[in-house]
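Recall the central idea of this unit: under ordinary conditions, the amino acid sequence of a chain determines the structure it adopts. In this exercise we apply that idea directly, starting from the sequence alone.
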Amino acid sequence: MTEIEIRCEHKPSPVKLEVLHVDHWPVWKKEVSRFPWRYEQTETCYVLRGRFVVAPEGGEPREFGRGDLISFPAGLVCTWEILEPVEKHYRLD
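Accordingly, the structure predicted from this sequence is:
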């Protein structure tokens, strides 16, 4: 079985964020919590604030936070653990 890869770029350039039109993406907010999740579509998000850990099923947990541009692939099954309240822009592909 091929591992589903979460991609992350820490602190992408303002130009890259502008080209992606991140400021026009919807915003998602969530308080400290823990929950299972399955990505039906690829999600690209840019974290405005907060800190969280995503633990892919059968994979190593990864921590993310402010300034991260992350791509979660379709088909990813994981558990989210929000350590500090999160606010992020997101786009579904």
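The longest strand covers residues 77-92.
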